[in-house]
Amino acid sequence: ITELKQRYRSAQVKAVIKVNAEKLQFNWLLGRDLVRKKAEERWGTGVVKQLSLDLRREFPDADGFSVSNLWYMKKWYCFYTQKEAVQKLQRAVGELERAKFMQNEGTLPSIFTSVPWGQHVDIITKCHSIQEALFYIRQVVDKGLSRPALQNCIKANLFSHQGKIVNNFTEK
């Protein structure tokens, strides 16, 4: 029974991870759509507010459809699809992923699916460069940082201080 419980809990964790990845893919594509529609001027002012109302009406039990969250989706997409960002992402992701990302701008880099949405919002709203953002994404992925831990790292400016921490080791 212990083994069955462990397998079930493992399956639950895997399911949550897959659901998170799908939600992030949805957010990425919605951000892309907001960028495209605005650029093509097919949508007028107030469309984000109306979209938020429509989505919340259609999916009353779902969260994440506030006006501010929709704007974060657009900002998130824009942040990582700037020319400089794409070049940095190409270096950060593997060859297979790089090809997918460049061929289909709707493809979310897989490293992003390991980071919860709230942490993505913190990163894009508080980081000043793509290098800094990717540094914190890597910290979340590699060290399993919680959102409060990530916020503390950003507040302490770990990106700038990494490798510059005072220590008592001698250099050789």
Blueprint of the fold:
Layout: H1 2-39, H2 47-58, H3 67-81, H4 83-92, H5 95-103, H6 117-126, H7 130-143, H8 147-155, H9 158-161
Number of strands: 0
Helix content: over 70%
Largest sheet: none
Class based on secondary structure composition and strand pairing:
mainly alpha
Rough outline:
globular
User: Could you give the distance between the termini?
Assistant: 54 Å
Strand content: under 5%
> What is the number of helices?
9
The stretches of 5 or more residues where confidence is low (pLDDT under 50) are 98-103
Order of helices and strands: HHHHHHHHH
Mean pLDDT score, rounded?
82
Outline the structure in words.
By secondary structure, the chain is mainly alpha-helical. Helices cover 70% and strands 0% of the residues. It is built from 9 helices and no strands. Helix 1 (2-39) crosses helix 3 (67-81) and helix 6 runs antiparallel to helix 7 (130-143). The chain starts with a helix and ends in an 11-residue tail after the last helix.
Q: Summary?
A:
The protein has 172 residues and is mainly α. It has nine helices and no strands.
Task: List the defining traits of the structure above.
9 helices, 172 residues, mainly alpha
